[in-house]
Protein: DUF4317 family protein
Amino acid sequence: MNKKELVDLRKEFKLNSYMMSIKEVYSIYLKKDNNEIIKKELSYFDMLEVEIKELYLNNFKKVLTGTIDTKIFELNFNSENLEESTQDVLYKALTSEERVAEYADKIVEKISENYTYDTDIVINFVKAEYYKGSKKRREEIDESVEDSVQAIQFILCSINKVDIPKRVLKFDYEERTFKSNSALDTTINLNSPLDGFMFPSFSDGNMDVNKVIYYSSKSKQLNLKFVEEVLNCTIKHTAIEEKERFNAILNDVIGDKIKADAMQEIYEKINEKLEDSMDEEEPTMNMKEIKRVLEDSGIDNTEVLESSFEEICGGDYEFKVKNIIPDFRSKSIKIENEETSISINPRDLSSVKQVVDKNGTRCLVIELSGDVEINGFKLEMEGEDSSKLIPFAKTQDPEVVNNIQRA
Structure:
C-alpha cells in the first residue's frame, strides 16, 4: 500500500462520503488494573448522532495518518500456523455475515493478555466498505468513459487512552451551581491513538490478506508486544533502522572515511532506481544491486559486502530505496562538526572538500557564484587575492550555506 492509496482512503473518513460506507462500530472499555472489560457497545454507524460520528471518523482517520515506515507500517503475518491466529480471526470477521463483535472480542482478549499501556483504554473497531474507482484514459477528447468501481471491505481498529482530568472547579448549568469535577469524569482521547491497524492491506484495488497496516503513536518505534503477540506479525524495520543498517554496511566496505564526490555518485546511482520507478511501486535493492552500485562508483573492496550484509541484515534482505538515501528534492545532507552545521542538496556533495591551509588549519571551503547572506546581511569578502585561495568545485546552489550555524 503506497502513500497515495493511504491519502485517498483517509480522505473518505468524512460525513456523507460517497466512496465509503461504515457499517458497525464496536467499542470496548478495558481496565488497566485487572484487565476487566467494564463496557461493550455495538452501534450501527448510521444511527449515531452527528457529533459522535465525527469523533469516530477523526479517530479512525488518525490510524491512517503518518509517514510510511515511520508511523505507518505494512506488516506480514507470521507464516507459522498459529491456533486462532489474528489473520484468521480478521479474515473470518471480514467475510462473515455475523457482527464484527463476534470476532473483535478474540482480538480484545489478546490485547488483554499482552497489556502494555499505563492507563485504561478504549478499543474501537469499525467494519466498512471502500469503493475504489479507477479511470481509464480517454482515447479521444469527446469520448465518455465510465469509471470502474471496486468494493473493498476492511476492518480498522484503534487503541485509545482514557484520560482522568485534573481537579477543577466547574459550573453545572442544570443545577446552576459551582462544583468540583469528579474522578469518574473520564474522557477518551480519540485524537491520539496509542496503536491501531487496518486489515487487509490493498494495492491497485487488490486486497492482500497476508498483510496488515499497523499504526504506531510514536515515530520510528513499534509496540513490539502488540505487533508480535496481538497481530502475530513479523517485525519490520523502520526507515531510521534501515538507514542505520545500510550505513553500517557501507562503513564495513568503505571504511570510516569517504570522499564527498564518491558519496554523491553512490547516492545518485541508487536514486536513479527511485526516479525510474512508477508512483505505485516501492523500489527496493538487494545485496547484488548494492554491490553493482558500489563497483560502478569506483569502490573496490566489495568482497566484504556479502559477509557484512549477512551479519547486519541476516540473509536475503531488500532495502527500501527511499529509506537509505537522502531526499534529492531538498537540502537533506548535513555536513557538521561541533562548531558548524551546513545543509546541502545531495547533488552538491561533490562541491564539498575538507582541506588544510598553509598554516595547517583544517578548513571547509566552498566556491560560490553569488553573495552569501547571514541573517539578512551580505557576508563581507575576505582574502581578495584569489591566488591565495584554495580552489574548490562550484556548487549549483548559491544559497548552500545560508543556514550555517555556529556555536
